[in-house]
């Protein structure tokens, strides 16, 4: 891993939070990967939020042969600012960017041909929905729902949403439909991108058997693997899927499990 030395021209940006990013960058439209072509052969780690993408992107960024560009308190926000052109990064090397934040702008992936490899982390909906409901603030979940989940409302709930806004939809419903909307993007990515451009990884498989799964990921991204990388793969959040109430589990099972099972058919 190579650490960037010297200034990165971050002083003029002024964006320190995702709320500021939403106000100042997203309104310009889907130009969030505006600078991606400056970073050929990058690794892009994505999937539904709360699926383990941060862990995997950090493992790869800290690997030999990669460049560590982190400069702030949130490395995904650092990546978003660099790729949108808000922060200038002029450094050699190969980079790993976490791109879960793209949300409704995921079709930007189709606009670039820079030899990037996309790693999609798929996680069971019970763990993800629990985390979205109980570990996220209202604004963050509402933003994800607006971008990825609202389009999956039935007619009755859609009318309520248009009239009253996000407060009219339960947190459970927002989390479930956000999961479905985000995971459904994977189907289009696999259909439209080259076969060797996207690898789908099941989170539980990775954390339960990193010695087997992680080397396959490194072969896919064409990066030398070291056994010590497994030391950074942890299982501490695997129990989240058991924390939902029976009612919540039944709803997740009904709404999200079919999407998850379909996505599992794309596992590499």
UniProtKB/TrEMBL annotation:
This is Sulfotransferase. One of its GO terms (molecular function) is sulfotransferase activity. Keywords: Transferase. Pfam families: Sulfotransfer_1 (PF00685). Residues 116-242 form the Sulfotransferase domain. InterPro entries: P-loop_NTPase (IPR027417), Sulfotransferase_dom (IPR000863). Gene3D superfamilies: P-loop containing nucleotide triphosphate hydrolases (3.40.50.300). Transmembrane segments: none annotated.
């Amino acid at each position: 891993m190579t650490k960037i030395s010297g200034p990165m021209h971050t002083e003029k940006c002024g964006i320190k939070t995702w709320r500021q990013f939403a106000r100042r960058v997203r309104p310009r439209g889907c130009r969030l990967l505006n600078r991606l072509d400056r970073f050929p052969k990058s690794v892009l780690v994505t999937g539904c939020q709360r699926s383990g993408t941060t862990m995997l992107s950090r493992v790869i960024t800290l690997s030999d042969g990669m460049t560590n560009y982190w400069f702030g308190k949130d490395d995904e926000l650092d990546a978003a600012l660099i790729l949108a052109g808000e922060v200038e990064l002029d450094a050699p090397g190969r980079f790993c960017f976490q791109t879960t934040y793209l949300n409704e702008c995921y079709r930007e992936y189709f606009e670039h041909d820079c030899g990037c490899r996309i790693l999609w982390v798929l996680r069971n909906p019970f763990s993800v929905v629990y985390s979205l409901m109980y570990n996220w603030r209202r604004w963050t979940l509402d933003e994800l729902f607006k971008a990825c989940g609202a389009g999956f409302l039935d007619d009755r709930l859609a009318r309520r949403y248009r009239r009253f806004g996000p407060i009219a939809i339960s947190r459970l419903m927002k989390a479930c439909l956000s999961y479905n909307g985000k995971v459904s993007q994977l189907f289009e990515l696999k259909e439209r991108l080259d076969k060797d451009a996207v690898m789908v990884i099941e989170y539980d498989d990775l954390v339960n058997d990193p010695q087997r799964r992680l080397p396959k990921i490194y072969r896919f991204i064409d990066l030398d693997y070291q056994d010590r990388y497994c030391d950074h793969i942890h299982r501490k959040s695997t129990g989240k899927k058991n924390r939902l109430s029976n009612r919540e589990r039944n709803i997740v099972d009904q709404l999200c499990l079919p999407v998850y099972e379909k996505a599992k058919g794309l596992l590499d």
